[in-house]
Amino acid sequence: MRTVYVNGEYLPEHEATVSIFDRGFLMADGVYEVTSVLDGKLIDFDGHAVRLSRSLNELEMRNPISKDDLLEVHRELVRRNEIDEGLVYLQVTRGSDGDRDFAFPAEETEPTIVLFTQNKPGLADSPAARKGAKVISIEDIRWGRRDIKTVQLLYPSMGKMMAKKAGCDDAWMVEDGMVTEGTSNNAYIVKGGKIITRHLGNEILHGITRAAVLRFAREAQMAVEERSFTIAEAQEADEAFTTSASAFVMPVVEIDGVALGDGTPGPVATRLREIYLDEMRKAAQ
Ligand code: PDD
Q: Which of 19, 127, 164, 255 has the fewest CB within 10 Å, making it most exposed?
């Protein structure tokens, strides 16, 4: 049984509770982060802590915990749950003032903070990454502030289910004809050795893995272009991949039924996955 963290306490998972009036529950008024764990250490904790602060600031939500304390809670949960490979999920909501109201509660209302671990043996040496993912495209009908990592994940969940029903692994979302991102990852194509991924803006989440992967790509003298692309361009690309804290670099081998290259993970995605895992293991805390 897991030990989880709720509002300052470490508890067995079935003893941890949050109010039914919590705005995270009633209004999706909350933000989250997912940090991966390799060799029992946190991957890019700093990046996730910085983005958490940004998400909270954008929503005028109080940060209930210092960065140092947050690191300690992450480490303590990894220790107590004996996680070698897995994820730490963190959620902060605007809390509850004991009723339902569209207006934000009084400023002194305590935010709710919850963390739990997910044990995922084989996260790094993943069979799914060796095979590559098949994706479908769907219309992106999410709200306009996707740069804020909110817990409003209904449409991404529906997208994942649409992909499953189509016999695929994931969905890439398309707005005004251009790919925004995957349901829970950033999207890339590779053409003539060049890595192409959408530019940052309010339309996509500013992936922590994206930032690291683009840095490693540039350091390895690979060409990177940050611009949007269409599904048609992606289907003609040499390869494609996604990045996220939960799957690192994941090759994409098929888009809307069209196989990319020979339908197996491409060399650029495979190499970037290796570099990312090597470098991030070294820097893990
Ligand atoms: N998802 N885009 C979206 C919509 C995401 O939900 C995520 C992450 C990313 C990649 O961001 P990062 O590299 O910082 O993980 C991009 C997490 C993993 C999740 O919801 O489980």
A: 127
